[in-house]
Specification:
Elements lengths: L1 H26 L28 E7 L3 H4 L6 E2 L14 E2 L2 E2 L5 E4 L3 E4 L5 H12 L7 E6 L2 E7 L5 E5 L6 H7 L7 E12 L2 E7 L19 E6 L1 H39 L1
Parallel strand pairs: 8-12
Antiparallel strand pairs: 1-4, 1-7, 2-3, 5-6, 8-9, 10-11, 10-12
Length: 269
């Protein structure tokens, strides 16, 4: 009897230990760096964002003589930018919305095709146009943010309005409250529109090589989807089966109750 109890106790201890180790491996990030105290992360490509239709740009032209460059700017107004719910209290220069052809129209300069260009390239393009009539112009172009959707097994799935051109996959996960314990960290999908087609790529958060992926830096309208792990899937199936069984039992009980009522009613007659 004692020998049997010892075997059972040993089996329970081994099972608990293995479960604990498995949970730690599943939930941690960058597991390939676990035995490394310090080092340099893999380097990726440039994160500069290319402008696409529907982007919102703020363009400011100035110079040493303000009166010479003012005509290249839109008039100031109290209008709010896209996505804001109230007007700005302080007047500000209005923004440009890139149309479906990738164009914007600036005062004096006229139409400019900015699709596929970075904000730095647009600055150089506008500066070269303004230089024809203004000496040493200064041009500042800013992308007024973009949207990224984070879905699936995160604590706060929602659309994120990004106020910077540099926004990574880790930034998106952090803004969504991190992954839940049911999130599949080794298989995070990033969906991106490229050349008119919806492309996707899978990233492994357990591997530090994600820093070198071209999908690590997010772009306009990217979708980040975190798949549920096997535990979540199994729990869902178990709950569905239980719900189905309860429904069947409830239906059977109701039917039996109706039949019993009819039998009693007939017996009384």
């Amino acid at each position: 009897m004692k020998f049997r109890n010892l075997i059972i106790l040993a089996a329970v201890v081994i099972a608990m230990t293995s479960c604990k180790t498995s949970t730690e491996n599943t939930l941690s990030y960058f597991r390939n760096l676990r035995n490394s105290e310090s080092g340099v992360m893999p380097q990726g490509s440039e994160y500069e964002i290319k402008i696409v239709p529907e982007d919102e740009l703020a363009i400011l032209v100035s110079s040493k003589v303000p009166e010479a460059s003012v005509m290249f700017n839109q008039p100031q107004a109290n209008y709010s930018t896209r996505g804001e719910y109230s007007a700005q209290a302080t007047p500000r220069i209005q923004t440009y919305i890139v149309d479906k052809q990738g164009d914007i129209v600036m005062p004096v300069i006229g139409k400019l095709n900015v699709a596929g260009k970075t904000t730095r390239e647009i600055e150089q393009m506008v500066s070269s146009r303004v230089s024809a009539s203004v000496k040493d112009p200064f041009v500042r172009v800013e992308l007024m943010g973009f949207n990224v959707d984070v879905l699936g097994e995160v604590k706060n799935p929602h659309r994120i309005h990004v106020g910077s051109e540099r926004f990574t996959l880790l930034d998106a996960i952090s803004a969504a409250g991190d992954l839940t314990e049911y999130g599949e960290r080794s298989n995070v999908m990033v969906i991106r529109e490229e050349n008119g087609k919806q492309m996707y790529h899978r990233l492994n958060l357990a591997d530090s090589n994600i820093f070198a992926s071209p999908y690590f830096y997010l772009r306009q309208n990217d979708v980040v989807y975190v798949e549920p792990n096997q535990i979540r899937i199994d729990n869902s199936k178990y709950n569905q089966n239980n719900a189905y069984k309860l429904t069947v039992i409830s239906t059977v009980v109701s039917a039996v109750s109706v039949i019993a009522s009819l039998v009693i009613a007939l017996a009384v007659k």
